[in-house]
Amino acid sequence: QISVPKELVALMSANRDGEAPDPEDSAHKVYRFSQNVPIPCYLFALVVGALESRKIGPRTLVWAEKELVDKSAYEFSEAEAMLKTAEDLAGPYVWGQYDLLVLPPSFPYGGMENPCLTFVTPTLLAGDRSLSNVIAHEISHSWTGNLVTNKTWEHFWLNEGHTVYLERRIGGRLFGEQFRHFQALGGWRELQNTINTLGDKNPVTNLVINLDEVDPDVAYSSVPYEKGFALLFYLEQLLGGPDVFIGFLKAYVQTFAYKSIITEDWKKFLYSYFKDKVDILDKVDWNSWFHAPGMPPVKPTYDTTLSNACIALSQRWIQAKESDLGSFSSADLKEMSSHQLIEFLALLLLEAPLPLSHVQRMQEVYNFNAINNSEIRFRWLRLCIRSKWEAAIPLALKMATDQGRMKFTRPLFRDLYGFDKSRDLAVKTFLEHRASMHPVTSMLVGKDLKQDQ
């Protein structure tokens, strides 16, 4: 139980067990909590703040400061449908309540899967529920991560690869199998982007990494998420498709629930579950998947239906000469979803920077500066800075400091540091904001900007 000033609310990674006036202090209130499921220590969370809640499902309240609570309730209203789908895929939800808490903008991650109380970044509040895959991801952790846990952070892919796999299975159920493949292919490109940044010989791009004398926060990247997912997606295709593979995942969760395991335990169980397919499993290049840096040894097969429009438009821009710029118009985007806009920009970021005239024309016809969806804005501003558009410098600095989600803040600062016209301003801005940043964000951006003396 926790006593807090009565105008505030206390929440925990546990079920709420009532509140009462503090008998020892009339200005305080006591909040009680219970957690009957054993959890590893990294899932222990406690929050106190001026919070309000809205009920968005039979087992779900969304908590936020009053300015954001209604917007949050709208944004995350699919939570119950996602929970039901996850239960169908992975087994019963054992935690009781599933609440969501919107944190202040300095929160460094997209979400954190604290049991009974997922923490999320306010950068998910796009206004159209288009970034709700992060909610599906955190919900999925209720099985993979929170029930079956990696024994050490060297095996972090067991938590994250399986969780991304489940997240995308939920997306497939709710929005169709083509959408699942579209998200999966987007993940492959995200992995390419990460490996381009880190270097394809860098040992932190191994799926199973060696953390001797390495800070896990420094090694953190999309690799355990997306290389882990790619392995599971590849195995799904190898072993008989989604319906066959979900049987394995369900049995895996049942077998190892309430335990911490390593990659070898997972692999042994895979072989015992698919004992009639050992010949197929023996053909997998396990050593490269687990212990080699860079991209995986095999690329899974993807349905590209929803990606094709993104690829076609990005290629038009890449191949366009100055004289072709008049052929672009706002009609190019008419049929595209916000997910497809993200993918269009992500594809351009994998290529050499576009000429400045191209990004200026892109702003003229598409007006990306007016879009507040964080995933679109982030990629658009990176594209502008890479093409050395000076007018984008203040916009990129603003986004890098208005919020502190490392997925956005680190690459924006890195790109600004890499552009001679903005390097000094990037360092100056970082030093001014450092004190109000989350300590992990501050440490990592400091390293990126060579300020950590």
TrEMBL record:
Enumerate the active-site residues: E138, Y225
The cofactor note from the UniProt entry for this protein is:
Binds 1 zinc ion per subunit.
Which keywords are on file for this protein? Cytoplasm, Hydrolase, Metal-binding, Metalloprotease, Protease, Zinc
Recorded name of the encoding gene: Lta4h_0
Peptidase M1 leukotriene A4 hydrolase/aminopeptidase C-terminal domain residues are 305-449
Record-linked PANTHER family: LEUKOTRIENE A-4 HYDROLASE (PTHR45726:SF3)
Main localization of the protein described in the UniProt heading? cytoplasm
Write down what this protein is called: LKHA4 hydrolase
Q: Which organism is it from?
A: Quiscalus mexicanus (Great-tailed grackle)
The GO cellular component terms are: cytosol; nucleus
Which biological process annotations from GO are given for this protein?
leukotriene biosynthetic process; peptide catabolic process; proteolysis
InterPro entries registered for this protein in UniProt: Aminopeptidase_N-like_N_sf, ARM-type_fold, LTA4H_cat, M1_LTA-4_hydro/amino_C_sf, M1_LTA4H, Peptidase_M1, Peptidase_M1_C, Peptidase_M1_dom
Cofactor or coenzyme needed? Zn(2+)
